[in-house]
Structures are given as structure tokens and as C-alpha cells.
Amino acid sequence: MPPSVRVAVIVMGVLAALLLTNAALLWYAYDDAVARLVREGEDISRSEASQFVLMSLVPYLVVGLALALAAWFLPRRQPWARWVGLAASALLALLSLMSAMSIGGVTIPLLLVLVLAVAAVTSLLARTTGTWVPKLHTRA
């Protein structure tokens, strides 16, 4: 396995662990998060706060699962794993950039996720990764 594939697998695994842990913790503290939003927000109903918490949890869960699957199947030379990992990592990088712009700065956890996502994208786009992973087959 080329070093670029190893880096991609490790980085995607770390990102998956971070995102799935974040989603699990948010799910565990769901009631507390909703209550805090209702308490601190102005004119926010409990159903709106609940919807906001769920919409915050779902992207972490979906992207985390996609990265976990890609990290698991890329060493098995599954071509779809490269593209799923690339799409999930690029989406995570874009979400991180949008988050940084919306809060007007960069936090350390946000910077960590952004750097790891960019590392995954560059490793998955590396020429050595492309030659090691078989091409996707198209049906005629």
C-alpha cells in the first residue's frame, strides 16, 4: 500500500472517529442541548430547538459514517471507497470553511478538522493512490 493511501486511511479514520464521537455526545446530551437553546434563545420554541439540534447532529453522523466506510474499504482496494472518501472529506472541508466564516474566526477544533480534511483530500487525489486503486467500472 503506498504511503498516500496509508495517510488517507489514517486521516479518514481519525475524522470518522471525531465526527461519530461528536454525534454520539450530541445525541447523549440531546435534551440538555435543546433545553439550553430554549433557555438562551430569544423566541425559540422547544420544537425549533429540537429540529436545530437534529440538523446539527445529522451531518456529523452521515459524513462520519461515510468516512468510516471509506477508511475501512480503501485498503481493500475498493474504487468506490476512494470517491466516497474524497466526497466526504471535501464536503467536510467546505462545511468547516463555511463554519469559520459564519462565526468570524477559527477555533482549534475547527482548524484540526479542516487540516485533516484537506490532508485526506490531497492524499486521495495523489497519483500514487489513483494508480493503486482500480478504476471504477462503467456498464455499457
Automatic annotation (TrEMBL):
The chain crosses the membrane at residues 7-30, 50-73, 80-100, 106-126. It comes from the Bacteria. Keywords: Membrane, Transmembrane, Transmembrane helix. This is Uncharacterized protein.
